[in-house]
Amino acid sequence: xxxxxxxxxxxxxxxxFDTLIGKTSEIYGRMVVxxxxxxxxxxxxxxxxxxxxxxxxxxxxxxxxxxxxxxYRVMIAGKVxxxxxxxxxxxxxxxxxxxxxxxxxxxxxxxGARVIGLVIQxxxxxxxxxxxxxxxxxxxxx
Length: 142
What we know:
Layout: E1 19-21, E2 26-28, E3 31-33, E4 37-39, E5 42-44, E6 47-49, E7 56-59, E8 64-66, E9 69-76, E10 79-81, E11 84-92, E12 97-99, E13 102-109, E14 114-116, E15 119-121, H1 125-141
Protein name: Cell shape determination protein CcmA
Family: Belongs to the bactofilin family.
Organism: Polynucleobacter cosmopolitanus
């Protein structure tokens, strides 16, 4: 009755990825993307979409990002060590491991996903950073 779920509880999307970083690829440095991106390899550096673009960044189960992600929609099934700023939606699939703060418009989280950090809805990047700094300062005083 309560066995492991094999299918995703998040609704499937019809994303088209113009750029794919394969399992054996590693990229070091800041990436600015104008079209949707899927990562199955490793990226060390921030990933940023162009202002007001509707870019999706997806991190596959084997994917890893060490850096911040700024995009319209972010879907995580792999590992992220950095902050996530999703203006429209962020999704954490069952195999997601995230260490960093998350700012989002809407959110979907599957059972089993791990998120260590603040989860802040509906604020811009600057306000989210200020809120994170205040909360950390309060926690350090304890």
